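Assess the record.
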Amino acid sequence: MSNFTVNGVYTYTSSNIYSYLGRVPSSDTSLKNAFDEFGIRPTGSNEDLRRLKNAMYEDYSNQVQKQIENQNNEKVIPWASLCAQIGVRATGDYEKDYAAFNNAIQLLSQSAMDGQAMAYFAGVRSEAQRVFGSANQQEKPEQVPYYVYQAQILR
């Protein structure tokens, strides 16, 4: 069992830290930074660790809630950046965008004279197969699990 000292005065044991936070920080500085980041003023009491845990969890919950709100308010068009590469503005309508993309890429490919341009358009077509093919299987953005969030704070 080791001790972590914050501000050169307040000491917390690794077992108490682990029991409240579920992991032990890598250094005294990491624990101090976590207290500072969440506005917790250390006193040397285990209550500090409980307040830190609650603040970390509240912050994490707020981030997840914002992510959900953004996901619900924002229509993500997976092929928008690909279309923009060849001058097509994506509308979000899969059929229309796919047809516009194919028409534009066909015209551009026909006018390509050198090998470099032809290779570029072949790469764009390959990317289109991946992007347009998986568009109907849109996945929700992956949420960072709480234990990973804790590890990022206490590294």
